[in-house]
Amino acid sequence: EGLIRLLAQTFPDCNTHEVSEAAAAMNAVWSRSWDLVILDLSLPGRSGLELLKEMRSARPGLPVVVVTFHPEERFSVRALRAGASAYLPKHASADVMVQTFKQVLSGGCFITPRAGEIMAANLKSDFEKPLHEKLSDREYDIFSRLGQGETVGEIAVSLNLSVKTISTYRARIINKTGLRNNAAVAQYAIRNHLVD
Q: Measuring CA to CA, which residue among 110, 128, 135, 153 is closest to residue 189?
């Protein structure tokens, strides 16, 4: 609601449409020619990063600004790689949000200073990269959920996948990171500020 008010104040002639889950978001993207999508990564039904990639594939010229409560350390680089034009934490000031929307609508991109630092750190060679940067987006999503203490069964329900599929992803995560079990994943995620 705050974002809709901010958009109405900044762009008086704008039309907005709000959805609360991933399938409705894709239907909305297909239904009209939008100037901008503001996307949260936490939507029921599927990973926000997967949804972002699908949006960019369906409408390559459509700018997407990710506005989310997830800290920049967790998803900013992945979101930008997936095609986001900007990544903002929900606590960003109204001025920063307005600046971002205007810049993106004019064809540019926007990154916060913190996201810039994270991106610069990610330019290091592979052997210097943190363990979690070796994971695919889906593996990272499951890794994050394991790090927050979710069980394989809970993750399966949340992502609408089978327990066997989640167990396979978990095995890949263990193999790629060398972390022995869920407790080690949780300790690593806490130590590296990857969980809320």
A: 135
Closest residue by Cα to residue 28 from 9, 6, 51: 51
The residues, ordered by sequence, that sit 6+ positions from 77 with a Cβ below 8 Å of its Cβ are 115, 118, 119, 122
Residue-wise pLDDT for 123-147, tens only, equals 665 556 778 888 888 899 999 999 9
Q: Quick one: which of 77, 80, 54 has its CA closest to 65?
A: 80
Task: Report helix, strand or coil for 36.
Answer: coil
The mean pLDDT of 35-41, rounded to a whole number, is 91
Which residues are within 8 A (CB) of 178 and not within 5 positions of it... i.e. 6 or more apart? 131
Q: What is the pTM of this model?
A: 0.67
Q: Which residues on adjacent β-strands are paired with residue 89?
A: 68
